[in-house]
Amino acid sequence: DSDTILSAFADGVLSLTLNRPDRLNAFNEEMHLALRAGFERANADADVRAVLLTGAGRGFCAGQDLGDRDPKKGVPDLGHTIETFYNPLLRLIRSLEKPVICAVNGVAAGAGANIAFACDITLAARSARFIQAFAKIGLVPDSGGTWSLPRLIGEARAKALTLTAEPLAAETAADWGLIWRAVDDDKLLEEASALATRLAAGPTKGLGMTKRAIQAAATNSLDQQLDLERDLQCEAGRSADYAEGVAAFLEKRKPEFKGK
Ligand code: T3D
Fold it and tell me: Complex ipTM, two decimals?
């Protein structure tokens, strides 16, 4: 167990809080391993039906802890750390067939920004900023940023953000479609938790397959996507939650989804 990630479970929601506030929740290896364990638990535990990711203190995440990259210690093999820590985390978030809600409570820099963009629904405090900080230290955007940014906001904005490392306000990030919504700072956790709880009470299987389909569209042709929709709908149509959803509609009552 590590105190670098605080985890709490309630109402089907696993809350994971990055907890190195005096480093603006920058990643060291311990926090990487603890966060990965949290997502692995979310994947393995059927009672977990949504994940809420946020940060403790005034920042969301400042990316890699640069204290661990002091050049005096020699030239690091960053390819190895990306392969060992950041890429598996990104793959876990994207492949988890449950909604991942991200509440960006403050500055999100470097990998911290791109992890927020990889989550399924990202809300940010109005005061939060997103910074592609890599250019400031001679690195290349990672954690899927070079994949997600051009897809979400187009090449022109993606290049400007990554080449200049200028901070982007939460409101602009929402206007551009990088995140779902900017909300008042004092309402962020309340709104994000309410959303996570609502989704956790939803038809988890159908929501998970919806996530898979939307993501597959990034590389599929229309024909491939139509085939995928057919296959997923076939599976969804056999789920208990679909039967419950239709029954509840016909009986004019609220459905009680079990996530199956
Ligand atoms: O290495 C690999 O494995 C490759 C992978 C790379 C992935 C990456 O994420 S690379 C990008 C790394 N991140 C950065 O370059 C961001 C560095 N941080 C900043 O530019 C600024 O801190 C912020 C813009 C994020 C926030 O600025 P501000 O003025 O609000 O806060 P601050 O005063 O700079 O930071 C507060 C404290 O957090 C401060 O410590 P102190 O002086 O109070 O003891 C600062 O040093 C510390 N901190 C912030 N970011 C990091 C950090 N300490 C270590 N690593 C950090 N990334």
Answer: 0.99
